[in-house]
Specification:
Blueprint lengths: L11 E2 L21 E2 L4 E6 H13 L6 E3 L5 E6 L13 E3 L6 E2 L10 E4 L11 H20 L2
Helix pairs in contact: 1-2
C-alpha cells in the first residue's frame, strides 16, 4: 500500500553491478512518504547495512534523520532533493520527491514506522549524499568481513 499522494514510480534501484545476492530493497511503502526539512529524497537500504552506516555517520557527526519501517527490514536516510538523479549505490534505492514533501512531524509520518534518528536528534536536516555513499560502502565492507569470520 503506497501512501496517498506519494509517487514512487521514479524510484530506481541503482545497482550498476548486481550484488552477488540481490538485497536491493524495494522502497518500502512505509518509508516512501518523504519527510521535509526543505523537501528531501529518501535513500532506502537494508537494515543491517543501514545500522552500520548510522553508527559510522554518528561517529563523524554526519547523520541526518533516519526512518525505519515497522518490520525493521529497511532504513530510510533523508537526503537533499535531487539526490536520486545521480544516486548509484548498489543495493540501495533512492526515491525522488520532486520538491514535494510533508513537514517534519514530531511523530513518524506513516503508521508503523519510527524514527531511528529523529529530526531533533540529527546533526543536520539531511544526510550529505557523498558522506552517506562513503558510510554505506564502509558498512558493506564491515559486514562482508564479519560474515567471512563466521
Amino acid at each position: 500500500m503506497v501512501e496517498a499522494g506519494v509517487d514512487i514510480s521514479s524510484s530506481r534501484t541503482t545497482a550498476l553491478h548486481p550484488p552477488l545476492q540481490d538485497r536491493s530493497p524495494s522502497p518500502s511503502p512505509c518509508l516512501t512518504a518523504s519527510v521535509d526539512a526543505g523537501a528531501c529524497d529518501l535513500v532506502t537500504v537494508p537494515a543491517r547495512q543501514g545500522l552500520e552506516a548510522v553508527d559510522i555517520l554518528r561517529l563523524r557527526d554526519g547523520v541526518g534523520p533516519v526512518l525505519h519501517d515497522g518490520a525493521c527490514d529497511t532504513l530510510g536516510f533523508l537526503v537533499p532533493p535531487g539526490t536520486a538523479d545521480a544516486w548509484d549505490v548498489p543495493g540501495s534505492a533512492c526515491t525522488q520527491t520532486y520538491g514535494r514533501g510533508v513537514r517534519t512531524p514530531a511523530e513518524p509520518p506513516v503508521t508503523g514506522t519510527g524514527w531511528l534518528v529523529a529530526p531533533d536528534a540529527a546533526f543536520s536536516a539531511a544526510t550529505d549524499p557523498a558522506v552517506l555513499r562513503a558510510a554505506l560502502g564502509e558498512a558493506a565492507r564491515t559486514i562482508e568481513a564479519v560474515d567471512r569470520c563466521r
